[in-house]
Amino acid sequence: MIKKSLLSLGLLLGFVAGIHAQDEFDALKASQTQLKGTARYMGMGGAFTALGGDASAISLNPAGLGVYRSSELTATLNMMNNSSNSTWKGVTNSDNNIFAHFNNLSIVATIPGTDQYSSALSFTFDRLKSFNRNGVVSGANQLSSLTKSIAYRTGGISENDILSNDAYSDPVKNIPWISILGYDGHLIVPSSSGTNQWASLLGNTENVLPSYSYSERGYIDQYSIAYGANISNIVYLGASVGWQSLNYSLISNYSEVFGTGGSMNLRNEIYTTGSGFDIKLGVIVRPTDFLRLGFAYHTPMFYNMTDNTYASLNFDTDRRGTVATPDEGGYSKYKVQTPSYYNFGLAAIIGKKGILSFDYQYEDFSTMKLKNQDGDSQPYQFENEGVKANMKSVSSFKVGGEFRATDNIALRLGYNYIAPATKTDAFRILGPGNSTRTDSEYFLDVNTQNFTAGIGFRYNNWNFDLAYVLSNQKQDFYPYDDADLAPARLTTRNSNLAFTIGLRY
Question: How buried is residue 356: exposed, middle or buried, by Cβ count under 10 Å (0-12/13-18/19+)?
């Protein structure tokens, strides 16, 4: 039923690794970004590695800062309509919400130079990702049940240990919190198949009717300082230091209605905060008046993270009631190292009438790492094996164009395609030993596409830009790991309307 090889490794390492509450799916949340930025940047699909002169392009390739000829102030407001649609065994659901936030605030200061050399400094704020979305997933009757998954994972743990007063806190007993909830909620019972073996309260042929709802909130913000240089209007070099702030929360409810009567509802709450830094290096070369070549390298982001988790189980079995994890919840501090990013760009400048730009981005998510507070990855051996087993490298393609209809009006279009970061056979196993995490659900990427359009207007030293981005992300949803469980298909559509106002001086 459950993928056994990685689970067996987890049980073996659990006695060595200690108490953990994070895994590769948590690291992935911190490692992926979205198409955010100024309206011009978004309207052209973010294909700016070989271009410059835009505040958000600095975050992608700091060499673009060297293109500036005058100082600039910009601000961008974003309105987002989030729509989540799910289909699970023929049952469909949808939910939507509207959110507003700033995408970008920036200041660029040019430094006087010579005909052969000039430079500029910038300070920028960019929202790299918005986690905000709600969703509902419900399916038809099925034999698979979370209660059976809990019973399997509790194998090898004695009933006396679960009943002990320190079951939640004793790292020596290595009892997953979801096992304690399952036992206290009468979802699992001792099995007659062997000592310290467990079984679901359900019969082997008993169906359940599942449903899942979730509410995600949060963001990844970046503050960066960059320096860019222009050498003879042929070579542009740039570097930046960035500090990122992550804030994420998830409140979810997974329910099952049992075929012969009764039900259960598992509520999870997760709150994550983090901060980290990275360095970006870039170059743009202009071999001819109409051609631009660009390259940028982003070092891994080195995050310090803090998790707080809480869970409660409402049950209606042979008894009714609610049980919960300790009031103080689960608490842990750890580090996440994200992948490096490699960006390659090619742009054609078509006289004074237009621009056509193409970007390729590569990152290998199997190189992510989880570490303890001291920076040691050995205690997270099981989780880092999960990173290698479940994650893969990703290629992203961006294309964008701009057409100057008049001296003051520009029209823009763009498109992105982002391949999945998770392997098709990836799965989630709650951490070894005394895991405080009880949220067994996970999402596997299928693909993400962005369709973009925009318009810009210049008046004297002012520019006003408007962009629309339709982001279409497809994922497969699993409430827990079970080889016999068919996934739900989840489609998340974000309609972003961005407005930028800028002043050059």
Answer: middle
Closest CA to 332 of 248, 376, 271: 271
Q: pLDDT tens, 118-137?
A: 999 999 999 999 999 999 99
Judged by average pLDDT, the poorest of 7-16, 73-82, 242-251, 412-421 is: 7-16
Question: Distance (Å, rounded) from C-alpha 42 to C-alpha 21?
Answer: 36
pLDDT for res 193: 86
Q: Average of pLDDT values for 434-451?
A: 91
In single-letter form, the type of residue at position 375 comes to G
Return the residue matching tokens 């509520």.
267
Contact 124, 104 (CB under 8 A): yes
Mean pLDDT, range 451-476, rounded to an integer: 97
* Tally: H helices and E strands in the chain: 8, 21
Query: Mean pLDDT of all residues in the chain?
Result: 93
Contact status, residue 490 vs residue 477, Cβ threshold 8 Å: yes
Residue 195 CA to residue 174 CA, distance in Å, equals: 17
Residue 223: how many CB atoms within 10 A of its CB? 15
CA distance linking residue 152 with residue 429, whole number of Å? 12
Tokens of 204: 């082997």
Percent of the chain with pLDDT over 90: 87
266: left (phi over 0), alpha (psi -120 to 50) or beta: beta
CATH class of the region 4-486: mainly beta
* Phi, psi (degrees; rounded to nearest 5) at 366: -75, -5
Residue found by looking up tokens 């891994």 in the block = 300
**Burial category of 107 from C-beta neighbours within 10 Å (exposed 0-12, middle 13-18, buried 19 and up):** middle
0.85 surpassed by pTM: yes
- Cα separation, 418 vs 451, whole angstroms: 12
What phi, psi does 303 have (nearest 5°)? -95, 140
Distances (CA, A) of 89 to 110, 211, 505: 58, 12, 59
* Residues 485 and 144: beta-carbon distance below 8 Å: yes
| Short-list 349, 231, 220, CA closest to 278 | 220
Q: Find tokens 């743990």 and name the residue.
A: 157
Domain limits, the chain = 4-486
